[in-house]
Amino acid sequence: xxxxxxxxxxxxxxxxxxxxxxxxxxxxxxxxxxxxxxxxxxxxxxxxxxxxxxxxxxxxxxxxxxxxxxxxxxxxxxxxxxxxxxxxxxxxxxxxxxxxxxxxxxxxxxxxxxxxxxxxxxxxxxxxxxxxxxxxxxxxxxxxxxxxxxxxxxxxxxxxxxxxxxxxxxxxxxxxxxxxxxxxxxxxxxxxxxxxxxxxxxxxxxxxxxxxxxxxxxxxxxxxxxxxxxxxxxxxxxxxxxxxxxxxxxxxxxxxxxxxxxxxxxxxxxxxxxxxxxxxxxxxxxxxxxxxxxxxxxxxxxxxxxxxxxxxxxxxxxxxxxxxxxxxxxxxxxxxxxxxxxxxxxxxxxxxxxxxxxxxxxxxxxxxxxxxxxxxxxxxxxxxxxxxxxxxxxxxxxxxxxxxxxxxxxxxxxxxxxxxxxxxxxxxxxxxxxxxxxxxxxxxxxxxxxxxxxxxxxxxxxxxxxxxxxx
Length: 471
Ligand code: SAH
Ligand code: F3S
Fold this sequence. Notes:
Blueprint: E1 7-12, H1 16-31, E2 35-36, E3 45-50, H2 55-67, E4 74-78, H3 79-85, H4 87-92, E5 98-100, H5 108-116, E6 122-124, E7 147-151, E8 153-154, H6 165-169, E9 173-174, H7 177-190, E10 194-198, H8 223-233, E11 239-243, H9 252-260, E12 267-269, H10 277-282, H11 289-302, E13 307-314, H12 321-334, E14 338-343, H13 361-385, E15 390-398, E16 406-409, E17 415-418, E18 429-437, E19 442-451
Parallel strand pairs: 1-2, 1-3, 3-4, 4-5, 5-6, 7-10, 10-11, 12-13, 13-14, 17-19
Antiparallel strand pairs: 8-9, 15-16, 15-18, 16-17, 18-19
Helix pairs in contact: 7-8, 8-9, 9-11, 12-13
The protein binds S-adenosyl-L-homocysteine (SAH) and FE3-S4 cluster.
């Protein structure tokens, strides 16, 4: 009889990079003989993949880890809190077995094995600056998802004054364009229809194998060329998206790529953070409101059907009511179809520590609610315009695990739920008529199946809804 496989459960907090890292940790642990289970209860190994962008993420880790304290499980803390805190985590929570940073995930199976054998707790949080490694998708037969993340770069050199990411993810490192293109091609051959290119400032990409001219404009990257190469060299790819770009690298050449490449999604998430120049300057965002507006207006002119979403921080140190009103006016002016809104949260190792966190909590909350009201109204109005429209959907998976309906996305990234039918399933491309608008999604009826579901494509359980305001 084969030995019982050990059970592994992964709990993921935070951004798309963490979702991607979690998927890769699952692959590594599956290859090492573990069975991945959805529930923490009964798991032999639990991995908490953490986020430290806001203080709340750290609180979540503490409460989740606390619950596992007495259990007879191997507890692994991965992600940005692991990188940020390292040894200090073991001091406050000695029952943690392994602390592993984002650049050390390949060592995970060996570290877990040592813990299972009763070894002491270990901490591995070393950046791979000299020889960066990029986690890639498993393209074993039957492993391809309808939609897949592909890493383009990691780390961040921007140092926005509020942000801990440059500290937790290290300096920018780029992946050779040839490797990125090869991964996309392999995914497409495996049945993947959509690729989402990932990076902290994904559009700052520079091919490390290509020498750069000394007089290069620092805002110009090789990201537009990368998009063109993927479009040309992976012609079977149905859709191409990327996240998250920085506005300063939204240059004329990237705008031209959007005009030329039909494969590019007609939705772009472009974090703006604030509508006030005074605040943008203190945030060290390196653009003004007018520059941001000019750049996204050019993008829209290149692709008139394009929709935009954004990230906003309220209550940054020194933000007055007038500054905040400028943010509201920008949200209205640019008609973002959705946004993520955050209350400023003091983070260790950030330049903004020098500034006084002077906007009272109650005021932050009321600004967030005011932002929420404006953005929800815009989301509702936008979704309402789609009722009665015919849209092309890429079916990703069941609406929820076990649900009878399927969930797909339009080219502009709206979520549409449809009933099942012949050929409808993960990886299918269908034409649907939108029947109803919900708060953050649409319901539709399938009219025809353009590309039937492929049996070898895995459902994508990546339910990151259209961005909404969160506290
Ligand atoms: N470039 C990254 C940004 C990571 S942080 C990306 O790929 O998404 C994601 C968002 O969290 C930021 O855009 C910002 O709006 C918010 N954020 C970051 N630090 C924050 C802080 N200290 N307080 C509140 N919100 C923060
Ligand atoms: Fe953070 Fe700014 Fe980089 S938000 S990830 S420092 S672009």
